[in-house]
């Protein structure tokens, strides 16, 4: 975790109320197959885009995914090859896989980059 993220997290832990924040994820699909992506809150039962939908990203393309989250909230991505959820990344399609470096802290006006590699 970077020093900046640790400082932001420490500052946010000291606050008592969750403030809404707008941030974005820039997802790069470097694979030759389309991928489905969902973002999961680790602090509440929220999924983006939600309602059984996914962000579909074409092969070798990228997409900016804006969302509204609570400042300090931990958000993890799950990604999988469209049509084959056995090939997955991050926390996977069911938000149940262990991962390193697949979670981010919600910070107002920030953009996090997710590279989905073969």
TrEMBL record:
It comes from the Bacteria. The keyword Signal applies. Keywords: Signal. Residues 1-20 form the signal peptide. This is Mlr4654 protein.
């Amino acid at each position: 975790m970077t020093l900046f993220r640790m400082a932001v997290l420490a500052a946010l832990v000291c606050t008592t109320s969750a403030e809404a924040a707008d941030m974005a994820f820039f997802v790069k699909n470097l694979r030759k197959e389309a991928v489905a992506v969902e973002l999961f809150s680790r602090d509440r039962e929220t999924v983006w885009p939600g309602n059984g939908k996914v962000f579909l990203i074409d092969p070798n393309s990228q997409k900016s995914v804006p969302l509204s989250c609570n400042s300090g909230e931990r958000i993890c991505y799950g990604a999988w090859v469209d049509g084959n959820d056995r090939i997955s990344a991050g926390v996977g399609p069911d938000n149940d896989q262990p991962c390193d470096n697949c979670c981010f802290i919600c910070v107002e006006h920030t953009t996090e980059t997710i590279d989905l590699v073969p």
